[in-house]
Design brief:
Keywords: Membrane, Transmembrane, Transmembrane helix
Shape: globular
Helix content: 10-25%
Largest sheet: 9 strands, antiparallel
Structural class: alpha+beta
Order of helices and strands: EEEEHHHHEHEEEHHEHEEEEEEEHEHHEE
Distance between the termini: 61 Å
Number of strands: 19
Number of domains: 2
Number of helices: 11
Length: 443
């Protein structure tokens, strides 16, 4: 019989599926009762059979690439591999691509310990930019982080830039580390003490590009600006921003909450404190302007203003397609995708607020938690793609965050001079000036 042995590399995305550098080794075994039958096969027949089996074992889009065929519809996720991220945007339904990216990143890793999902196995942005660049870059191996690994939560850089007084220390409990988060800039009525912590995760493609181009230090960025370098991340690049609500700050005790609460929103204990995952931004370099999507759970407790200002539109995963705050149901297609990926039950209650693949349709996109309550940006002035287009660096080390004097929407603002270059929409590069993103640092 013909056996194909998987010699995949170590990289896993989720669901126990190895996704990178998939290779196959052919082994032909002839049993004692099949030797005569096997000798009747011509050598050409054996080769043909091996080719067909190998060809059918790879993804449909890979078959097309092998034959030099291009598909007009960028539908690249196999239903047999729901934890594989797409490698192109569906030109007729960007919401479908957004969900495919989100599901792939949310596939389970562990059920009873951190990291629970795929994106929690990516590095946090603070790990990419050392406090002492002169000592070099040492990125921790997530797989070797050990049993004490946890989230590296912090405040929203935009919130603390706009209003430094919002910085709030969250003391660690049970021996956990303290974390510097921030009070919500515009908390809802009844939650005046709301505390939100944030993290930004970079997948392997983002990590590799930053490390390989030396953009992890400000000196590398200033050199790029002086040379007029065109910073361009690779298509597999994905970043996720996650905002967590400290539940005790809104009067909730996790030990006394009903079971149904945990079925509607993802909750984790981080450094002894109980947090609910209330908002997620996702950006992926599947096109030059990236694809932008933002997600929230349907919860009047943690997300009372979800969809109320801009409305939420999702023509792939939501019934009805548009909502202005009312709960919606998942479509059969999205339900099937989540089920096949074996997502935890609470993630079936998360919804897409909207998706951007350009500057104008839609022109506005924001999250009621990340922009609204945490950073204090009016959602009528929020655009993920336009805000990120301002990420830039000057040849003297001045960071583009100094240019955020307003909330830009629509076409990206022009840079002040030729001494500036854009950083391909990546704001985490501001962290390369560890002690202050506002000063002109050169290390």
């Amino acid at each position: 019989m013909l056996i194909f042995v998987n010699n995949a590399s170590r990289t896993k995305l989720g669901c126990g599926i190895n996704l990178r550098n998939l290779r196959y080794r052919q082994v032909i075994a002839v049993g004692p009762h099949r030797g005569v039958a096997m000798t009747r096969l011509t050598f050409a027949s054996v080769l043909f059979f091996a080719f067909v089996m190998a060809f059918m074992s790879i993804e449909p889009n890979q078959r097309e690439a092998a034959l030099g065929i291009s598909s007009a519809k960028a539908q690249t996720v196999s239903p047999l591999n729901p934890c594989a991220a797409p490698n192109a945007i569906n030109p007729t339904d960007a919401a479908e691509t957004a969900w495919q990216l989100w599901v792939a990143a949310t596939c389970p890793v562990n059920t009873r310990q951190y990291p629970f999902v795929v994106w929690e196995d990516w590095i946090e942005q603070a790990q990419m930019y050392p406090a002492n660049p002169a000592a070099g870059l040492e990125v921790p191996n997530a797989k070797a982080a050990g049993p004490n690994a946890t989230h590296l939560l912090h405040g929203s850089p935009l919130a603390t830039l706009k209003k430094p007084s919002t910085i709030k220390l969250v003391p660690g409990l049970l021996g956990g580390a303290d974390q510097s988060c921030n009070k919500a800039s515009t908390p809802p009525p009844g939650q005046p003490n709301l505390v939100i912590c944030e993290e930004v995760r970079l997948n392997g493609a983002v990590e590799d590009y930053i490390a390989g181009t030396k953009l992890w230090k400000r000196g590398g960025q200033t050199k790029a600006a002086a040379n007029g370098t065109d910073i361009q991340f690779s298509p597999p690049s994905v970043e996720i921003k996650a905002d967590w609500i400290q539940l005790s700050s809104i009067g909730l005790d996790c030990s006394t909450l009903p079971a149904k609460f945990f079925q509607k929103i993802h909750v984790e204990t981080i450094n002894g404190n109980c947090f609910a995952l209330a908002g997620m931004h996702l950006m992926s370099k599947l096109q030059n302007k990236w694809i932008w999507a933002t997600f929230e759970p349907q919860s009047p407790i943690t997300n009372p203003y979800r969809c109320q200002v801009l409305g939420c539109t999702d023509d792939f995963g939501s019934t009805p397609t548009v909502t202005h705050g009312a709960d919606t149901s998942l479509t059969p297609g999205l339900t099937a995708l989540m089920t096949a990926a074996n997502l935890a039950p609470e993630f079936f209650n998360y919804r897409l607020d909207g998706v951007q693949i350009g500057y104008f349709k839609p022109q506005l996109l924001g999250n009621s938690i990340i922009e609204g309550e945490n950073a204090g940006v009016p959602l009528t002035q929020a655009s993920c793609i336009t805000c990120h287009s301002v990420s830039s660096i000057k040849s003297d080390g001045t960071d583009g965050i100094t240019l955020l004097t307003s909330n830009p929407v629509g076409a990206p603002p022009a840079l002040p001079s030729d001494a500036w270059i854009r950083r391909d929409f990546i704001w985490s590069l501001s962290e390369a000036c560890f002690n202050s993103p506002l000063q002109a640092c050169t290390q």
